[in-house]
Amino acid sequence: MNPINEKLSYPDHTILIAEDDEANFQYFQQTAKAAGINILRAENGLDAIKQCENHPEIKLILMDGMMPVMTGYEAARTIRKIRPGLPIVILTAFVSKDSIRDAVLSGCNDYLAKPIGTEELRMVLKKWLV
To answer: Model-level pTM?
Structure first.
């Protein structure tokens, strides 16, 4: 089957979308819900940490790099300490060597540059939820 047309289905999976921008959140949520994924949301890095502490069922985090209160990079460092095996994918509009280095140093497993296409997002979900 062509991967673009492949139906993703992860009904027993919960992901955390840490994104302060409503339009971006809706876009990511729509793609994930189409795959049957349960969605939790955090609007800042501090809330992302709290969600990870309170929801052991989270299997993946899609984390905006730049959020209010605490950045995604800072939150990832803390989450990595409390949930070391939890995959974290940083989402950023600021593509540079420094942002990639920051993602790696903060403990992120993967990196997506905004704007993120539906197929890119589907591939990341498949990669980290299988």
So the answer is: 0.89
